[in-house]
Amino acid sequence: MSKIAKITGQKIVNCLGDNTIEVLVELDNGLSERASVPTGALRGKYEAVSVHDLDKAIQNIATVITENLRGRDPVDQSEVDKILIALDNTPNKSNLGANTLLGVSLAVARVASLSEGIQLYQHIANLFGQKNPIKRLPDPMLNLINGGAHADNNLSFQDFMIVPVGENLDFAGKLEKGVKIFHTLKELLHNMGQKVNVGDEGGFAPELYSNEEAMELLVSAITKSGYIPKEEVSIAIDVAADGIPDLSIATYPQTPFEYYEKIVKNYPIKILEDPYKQDDWTSWATLNQKLGAMISIVGDDLFATNLTRLEKGIEIKVANSISVKPNQIGTLSETLNVIRKAQEANFEVQISHRAGETEDTFIADLAVATQAKYIKAGAPNRGERVAKYDQLLRIEKELKGD
């Protein structure tokens, strides 16, 4: 059985031009694999802490982490992650850093799959305890209009996405729909005299009058592309309320709840993410009670991929869906525990990218392995976003036996 021999880290640059960390794990049989860690445009206060002194992080990887993982079986992900968590020994990963731990954890999983001679998604499925054959891929959530912290424009809501649907349509077909709508939207914006530069996550960043104008544009792009809104393509909105100083101003003259009720009635909205701030449990619970039967109410900053917060949210019924971001918690095992708990509570799961992405495609395999309902990886534009979708196309081809 091959064992971990050496672990090294290095600085690389993410899509925002910021430094992040990449980890290389080498086994004693000569096999090696890498993983890199994304960063968020905003960090919720309940996310695990990333260490910004990457030189120190790299030193810690080469010394304390390597010393404690050398000779370990890379297939035993649970034991590897337990050691990493114990070495950090803080509740929020503030000692070694969630970015440091995650890079090691994901690279170990990747080299373990290589050592076993199986695909990464199958290795993760085994770790997850996935007993059923993998038959479906997640539905893509394609971010076509960027606002909030992801764009330099006047839109207060952060993401305006489309979700191609259809039980008889494979992932390739859904992505093809999304790409067509993306280009139709570009043409619509061009005809309006809008610039078609893109934001951090690959979507367009136009100067519009309101959040609702962005929704109107998505409906127009869907229709002009030849699809039926809601029946064939739905809309998802990430409000990212914690990035809005005063939510009541953003929804004026309606209250936030009245505004959400209105747009769900007037637009083909399927998913509403982070509609309230992360500590406003009461408003979350009210919204979920009133609208949860009609749409997905998604907790991102609310849950921060944290098992304790998710358990509280399940108990008081604040949402029916969760956005999972591995770098919010710090290890693969902890990420899988959160997904498992969410699915046991009949929550929909979306596996999500971050604003500061790398070309690493790990989340694509993670979404397939856990049979997540959705993957949120940005627009079908910009290499670091498209890389995830292209990986899903490869996986689908393999699963079909082509």
TrEMBL record:
Residues 4-124 form the Enolase N-terminal domain. It is found in: Cytoplasm; Secreted; Cell surface. SUPFAM superfamilies: Enolase C-terminal domain-like (SSF51604), Enolase N-terminal domain-like (SSF54826). Keywords: Cytoplasm, Glycolysis, Lyase, Magnesium, Metal-binding, Pyruvate, Secreted. The active site is at residues 201, 325. Mg(2+) binds at residues 238, 273, 300. Pfam families: Enolase_C, Enolase_N. One of its GO terms (cellular component) is cell surface. Its EC number is 4.2.1.11. Belongs to the enolase family. Catalyzes the reversible conversion of 2-phosphoglycerate (2-PG) into phosphoenolpyruvate (PEP). It is essential for the degradation of carbohydrates via glycolysis. NCBIfam families: eno. This is Enolase. It comes from Candidatus Berkelbacteria bacterium CG03_land_8_20_14_0_80_40_36. The gene is eno.
